[in-house]
From TrEMBL:
Residues 288-342 form the HAMP domain. Keywords: ATP-binding, Kinase, Membrane, Nucleotide-binding, Phosphoprotein, Transferase, Transmembrane, Transmembrane helix. It is an enzyme of class 2 (transferase). One of its GO terms (molecular function) is kinase activity. It comes from the Bacteria. It is found in: Membrane. It comes from Paracoccus marcusii. InterPro entries: HAMP_dom, HATPase_C_sf, Sig_transdc_His_kin_sub2_dim/P. The chain crosses the membrane at residues 233-252, 272-291. PANTHER family: ETHYLENE RESPONSE SENSOR PROTEIN (PTHR41523:SF8), TWO-COMPONENT SYSTEM SENSOR PROTEIN (PTHR41523). Signal peptide: none annotated. This is histidine kinase. It catalyses: ATP + protein L-histidine = ADP + protein N-phospho-L-histidine.
Length: 574
């Protein structure tokens, strides 16, 4: 039914639009006629002025060289006409000696006038406006005619009319309240504008449409916003072809545009409304049979996709056969997926428990080894041997701390390095305090997530660096207890920075086997980092810069392999 009605509606639409366009065109022609009628009086005055300026040319030529005679001629002409405000002959140099001004008036010098210089450079018949006439001191419209002798350009014949006289000729018909008429020349300069006292004529002009572009269009009608912001209809008609044009500014209610737009709207909407009604009937029929079942099935699929998988979605009842088959297939697929996901989740949970149990047992074994080393150190009286066993015990305890954090972590592929480093420092600081040494430890550990492959060598490197810092921390020169500062930060995304700084004193004694330095170098190579050391006034600084790995990245060894590799490198250099 909708397809059958569509051609009839289209035919009606085309016919109605055609009639609407014809009515709108008739309205535009009527507006052009009103504009031309309103400017008819101004057209007569300007054409008369152009003819008079052209007729004065031969008389001015005959009185050339006799300024008094020429001025009398122009003065008599202005007095007899009663229309013109002033007449003058402007020679090329701009010094006016022949004008209708009285003998008591000063001689005019227009050599510095931009308008005069412009017309002298490009002499042609023109009509322009001046806000203040040089003689009358009133707003005037000036008609200019070039004057030649043979082919020699002598100057311009100028006749001026008051703008008030020209404005008074604008006549609007009954029922055109709010309409405005404005005239402008071919250069886009406004000559006369129908405005109230103190109003700006620019408010009547169309926005973003320069006047200089309108003369080339001939008679034209267009609709746009005026500079005042009001939507208006504009008409353009020639007053003096090629020289002066009239611009009519009409409100849409006067122009009848709103009525034509309404009729066009009705011409379009009636067929469209009929077609929409037919579509609505078809839609409700299709919705009852198909769309409502598809909507329910789509909702089931969306809920299943976002994780609502407690039970398979039910098969749609009272649905057409094809949709019922799709619903049954989706039900079977969802049931199989739920079963497989449950099996996979159970397998992952079992593997996670087993891996955490491995980490737990490794931690227990390492703690047992550390306890055995501690027991063995108590049976030895040699201080160097005790120191060596103590360093080995600290390293084993650090490994135990790593595996304790691994089996306690919620995600096995991520390790919180800040917790690891904090535990290691607390453990070593407690051991130092139990030895009776007064040492100030300051930490700045920022939250940092790492891969287990990186956390293990970083923790062992921190253990070695912190142990060396505590071992060689000296009393500051200005007094006070020795101190150690440890910081772990991320200066830029994807980069980590570990800094260990200890105080030094004048009585600091260098020593040691160098094993700690070898281990630090080995662990930094495992991290693919860069270790730098430098001595500062009263302090010694070790800095490690390394790149942070991302979870799920390929490559890398397990934590145990990292330790064995690092230990092997250190042993080969020892």
């Amino acid at each position: 039914m909708s397809i059958a009605i569509l051609p009839i509606g289209l035919i009606s639409l085309v016919q109605n639009l055609h009639l609407s366009r014809e009515a709108e065109r008739s309205a535009e022609i009527a507006l052009l006629g009103r504009t031309a009628s309103a400017a008819a009086g101004e057209r007569a005055l300007l054409q008369s002025a152009l003819g008079a300026a052209d007729a004065l040319g031969p008389a001015i030529l005959e009185s050339a060289g006799q300024p008094g005679m020429c001025s009398d001629l122009l003065r008599n002409f202005v007095q007899r006409s009663g229309t013109y405000r002033h007449a003058a002959f402007v020679p090329v140099d701009g010094r006016v000696e022949c004008s209708s001004a009285g003998p008591d008036d000063p001689q005019l010098d227009l050599s510095n006038s931009d308008m005069v210089r412009e017309f002298m450079q490009n002499p042609m018949t023109a009509v322009t406006a001046m806000a203040q006439g040089p003689v009358s001191r009133e707003p005037v419209v000036v008609v200019l005619q070039p004057l030649y002798r043979d082919r020699e350009f002598l100057g311009l014949t100028a006749l001026s009319l008051t703008q008030e006289l020209l404005r008074s000729t604008h006549a609007m018909d009954f029922g055109t309240e709010g309409a405005r008429i404005l005239t402008f020349n071919n250069s886009g300069r406004v000559l006369i504008a129908d405005t109230s006292q103190g109003d700006d004529p620019a408010q009547l002009l169309p926005r973003d449409v320069p006047l200089v572009s309108l003369p080339g269009q001939g008679e034209a009608t267009f609709r746009t916003r005026a500079n005042s912001g009001e939507m208006r209809v504009f008409t353009v008609v020639p007053v003096v072809p090629g020289l002066v044009y009239a611009l009519g500014s009409w409100s849409p209610s006067i122009a009848g545009v709103g009525l034509f737009q309404l009729s066009r709207f009705g011409a379009v909407m009636l067929p469209v409304a009929l077609w929409v009604v037919s579509l609505a009937v078809a839609y409700f029929a299709v919705f009852r049979l198909v769309l409502r079942h598809i909507t329910v099935l789509r909702g089931q699929m969306r809920r299943f996709a976002i994780g609502n998988r407690d039970s398979p979605p039910p098969v749609l009842a009272d649905a057409p056969t094809e949709i019922a088959d799709v619903s049954q297939t989706f039900h079977n697929m969802a049931r199989i997926l739920i079963r497989d996901e449950e099996a996979m989740e159970q397998a992952v949970a079992e593997k996670t428990v087993l891996l955490k149990e491995v980490h737990h047992r490794v931690k227990n074994n390492l703690q047992l080894i550390a306890s055995i080393i501690n027991m063995q150190s108590r049976l030895i009286d040699d201080r160097d041997a005790k120191r060596v066993l103590r360093s080995v015990q600290d390293r084993v305890a650090a490994l135990a701390t790593i595996y304790r954090n691994l089996y306690q972590a919620e995600q096995l592929d991520q390790v919180y390095a800040d917790r690891l480093i904090t535990d290691i420092i607390a453990q070593l600081t407690t051991a130092s305090a139990s030895a009776g040494r007064h040492l100030q430890v300051q930490t700045d550990i920022q939250p940092l997530t790492m891969l287990p492959d990186q956390a293990v060598p970083l923790t062992l490197l921190t253990t070695e660096a912190f142990t060396n810092a505590m071992k060689y921390a000296g009393n500051p020169a200005d007094g006070g207890d020795p101190w150690v500062r440890v910081s772990l930060t991320s200066p830029t995304p994807g980069q980590g920075l570990l800094e260990v700084v200890n105080s030094t004193g004048p009585d600091e004694a260098a020593g040691g086997t160098g094993l700690g330095s070898q281990l630090i170098e080995a662990f930094s190579m495992q991290l693919e980092g860069d270790v730098t050391t430098n001595s500062q006034p009263g302090a010694y600084r070790l800095a490690l810069t390394f790149r942070l790995g991302q979870a799920g990245s390929a490559g890398g060894n397990s934590p145990r392999q990292v330790v064995l590799t690092s230990a092997a490198r250190a042993g080969s250099r020892h």
